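Posted in: Structural Biology > Protein-Ligand Complexes

Title: Requesting predicted complex, fe (ii) ion in pocket

I'd be grateful if someone could produce the 3D structure tokens for the following input. Sequence and ligand are given below.
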Amino acid sequence: MHPIPVRRMRFEVPQTGFHPIYIAGDAMLSYQFTGLGLYVALLEPFIVKSARRVLPRITDAALAEEVDRFCRQEAQHYQQHERFNQVIFAQGYPGLEARYERLRADFDRMLEHEDDRYRIGFIEGFEANTTQGALHLLASGALRHRETDPAFGELWTWHMLEEIEHRNVAFDIYQHLYGDWLFRARMCWVAQAHMARFIADCRRIMSAADVPRYGDVCRIRVKDHALGVLMRLVPRFRSMAPAYTPHRYELPSQVARLSARFTEQAESAT
Ligand SMILES: [Fe+2]
Ligand SMILES: [Fe+2]
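-- Reply #1 --
Done. Output follows.
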């Protein structure tokens, strides 16, 4: 099996009993993932379109295959998230759909008015953040926590695993075509700040609507905000460093175990 397998999964979307604090009983973490699930449903189609546009210029055959697999993994991600996001939109958050549409307009603008280097840099900025977040998340055990909704826990475990599997591809495209560190560092800032703004807006919108109906468990506290800022800035600065490369990550043994388990569970895997 190729190290970036393309799996077709079938996750059951919970139809009833949704509670907004569905990861480890933690409001900050739960809203973070809800916001990220909305973000990726629009980012990942943008990734696929942007990477496919530069594919004809990739002269390394092994990298070209990885890019194709990267696109196919991302395409599976956003399709699954769109199904789960229907549950989120059904909660009736005032202003959430409008914010989502503004995000869609951002990606449409980037597809139309920015160049390939900007888009590939943007994608690498996002992937550099995701890989660090995914490794941290798997190590934390939050997705297996007894207060984590199993359906959302499985969706995110699979998604984070595949983010780790394709962690090198966006960086390698950027290095192959451009290799300019300063611009890559700038795009790490641009992409990660763009995502952070969207998720912070989602968190504000959702928490404001949920506190009256579900109580204080949905409130984001000052210390959570402070921790959130730290959690955003540490990976951002790390990925902006001139010597940053995703090729140096040491993967924990659970990555290989999860990879085999999801391949086994998949409707198909190639
Ligand atoms: Fe993804
Ligand atoms: Fe990704």
